[in-house]
Amino acid sequence: MFTGIINHRGKIEKRTATGLTISAKIAKPRLGASIAVNGVCLTVVKTSNGKHTFDVGPDTWKRTNLGSLRTGQAVNIEPALRHGDELGGHFVTGHVDAAAEIISLEPWGEGFWRLRAELPKVLRGLVAVKGSIAIDGISLTVTAVGKDFFEVMLVPHTLQNTNLGRRAARDKVNLEADPLARYAMAAAQALRSSK
Description:
The protein is about 15% helix and about 40% strand.
C-alpha cells in the first residue's frame, strides 16, 4: 500500500525483457520489499550501491508505461507505507488500471499547470471531480471530467519533485483509480443487480 506522495525520483539504468534496474537514493530496501515505480508496485529482487532491480512480468509491461521507458528517464519512486506513516495523499495500491496519453500539459498561472489526460473506458465512472486519482503514482485531485478525458491541476512542488515536470503531450502515464471509488461502484452494481 502507498499514499501517492512521491519523496524520491529514480533513473532507469537498464531494461531487459524481464525487469528494470533503477538508480535511486533511497534507504537500502530488503529483498522482497514493495516499491512503487511510476505507481506500479514492484518487488525488489536485487539492491546494491543505490541500484535496485525489479522483475517485471508480461502483463505489467502490457498494462503500464514501464515498457516505454528509456535508459536515463526519470521515474517516481515511493517505498511501501509503514505502520505509523503519515497518510498525506490517498490510498494507492500500485495496481495500475491503465496507461493513457497526456492530451495537454500547459501553464495555468502562478507556477501551476493543468494536465489533461485520456480517460480510458476501464476508468469511466471511477473518476469524479474532487475525487482522487494516481498518475504515475502521484496522488492528485481531479478538477474536471469529460466523456473521454479528465484534468488535474499540478502545483509547483509536484512539478519540481516528480517526473510530471518533464512530461509532454502524447507521453503515456500510469493511472490508478481511487480504491474507494472502485468499492463504491462495485457496491452500486451489486445493489442494481439484486433488484
